[in-house]
């Protein structure tokens, strides 16, 4: 007696397709969510942190999530004295202005409270006077 494997194969294909869709978008998710967003239901998406509009649901396939420039007004992140804000896709970072460096020797920091930018000439002069990094 020959057993048809078609129904079993078809059921397996459907199951695997549903599992793959669930892994990407979760159950009952909008498959048209734009880049830089997350699905919240079968008919809505929300932009990720760092993209606008951050507090509104996107309910149309034509909706977009645009990068928020945290370094520009009205947000204008404060990096502190002798530092510059650098916008990135979905985020930002602070760097010391030319002629300045972080006491730690690092390159980037997140905000004014982490700013330890000091003049490079000042650091070199102190080292010539016998001071070690971290003593001043």
Topology:
Layout: H1 6-25, E1 37-39, E2 45-47, E3 51-52, E4 57-58, E5 66-67, E6 83-88, E7 91-96, E8 100-102, E9 108-109, E10 117-119, H2 120-128
Antiparallel strand pairs: 1-2, 2-4, 3-5, 6-7, 7-9, 8-10
Structure, explained:
This is Adhesion G protein-coupled receptor E5 isoform X5. The protein is α+β, with helices and mostly antiparallel strands and 136 residues long. The chain has two domains: 25-67, Laminin (Ribbon); 69-136, Laminin (Ribbon). Helices cover 21% and strands 24% of the residues. It is built from two helices and ten strands, in the order αββββββββββα. Strands 1-2-4 form a three-stranded antiparallel sheet, with no helix packed on it. Strands 6-7-9 form a three-stranded antiparallel sheet, with no helix packed on it. Strands 3-5 form a two-stranded antiparallel sheet. Strand 1 (37-39) and strand 2 form a beta hairpin. The radius of gyration is 26 Å and the shape is elongated. Mean pLDDT is 79; it is low at 6-25.
């Amino acid at each position: 007696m020959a057993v048809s494997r078609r129904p079993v194969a078809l059921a397996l294909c459907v199951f695997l397709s549903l599992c793959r869709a669930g892994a990407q978008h979760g159950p009952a998710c909008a498959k048209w969510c734009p880049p830089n967003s997350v699905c919240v239901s079968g008919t809505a998406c929300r932009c990720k942190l760092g993209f606008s509009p951050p507090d509104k649901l996107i309910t149309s396939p034509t909706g977009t999530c645009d990068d928020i420039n945290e370094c520009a007004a009205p947000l204008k992140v404060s990096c502190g004295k002798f530092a510059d804000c650098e916008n990135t896709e979905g985020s930002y970072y602070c760097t010391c202005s030319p002629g300045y460096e972080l006491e730690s020797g690092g390159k980037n920091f997140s905000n004014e409270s982490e700013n330890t930018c000091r003049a490079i000439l000042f650091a070199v002069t102190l080292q010539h006077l016998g001071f070690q990094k971290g003593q001043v």
